[in-house]
């Protein structure tokens, strides 16, 4: 039994070891499978990405192909249009060649017409020059006649202005020499009249200025006399009156007023000498005069200051 147990134990141990080795191998295999699965998943993902990229590229290529097809269609249309245009141009060139031939024929005829026109223009130019020369001569004649008419009219106006309405010579026309002499005489008379007028105006101005000077001198003399009269009416001494007399004597007046100035000065000097003599006599008798009592009114209201 122990041998059996021992053998059984060995078998179990061997079985367990086999199982353990099998489990280990399975684990390893599982790990390998997981790694393979991860690798496979990565590869699948990358393949899917590549497929998506390829699909996108295929779609883009399809679009490019469609675009190229549409462009080819447009180019075909353009080629057809160019072909039709070339055909039209060839037709136009053919027509132009025919038209050019026609134009050359017309050009020859036109050249002949131009030559004829130039000849006609030369003839017309000659006719215009002759007409212009004739018109110029007519204008000169007309201008001369107008100027002559104006001169005659001006001459008649000058004669009327010079001689008046009555003609000096009823039988004979007035000659240019007679007209010139008459104009010279009228001019000299006018100059003499202007000189006399200027002289008279100057004399009038001088007379007015003299009259104004006399009036001014009279006003000055009157003002001086008014001051002297006021001085004599107030309480004044001989010194004040002498001052006024000196001012009147120094007054500058013109000759017409000078005589009146001399007469007034003689009268005032007489009054001044009389006043001075009176004051001297009063002082000699011992009468003292105050400043308010001196003057001409002293002899009407006398009072003595001791």
UniProtKB/TrEMBL annotation:
<keyword id="KW-0175">Coiled coil</keyword>
<dbReference type="InterPro" id="IPR052642">
    <property type="entry name" value="CC-FHA_domain"/>
</dbReference>
<protein>
    <submittedName>
        <fullName>Forkhead associated phosphopeptide binding domain 1</fullName>
    </submittedName>
</protein>
<feature type="coiled-coil region">
    <location>
        <begin position="16"/>
        <end position="137"/>
    </location>
</feature>
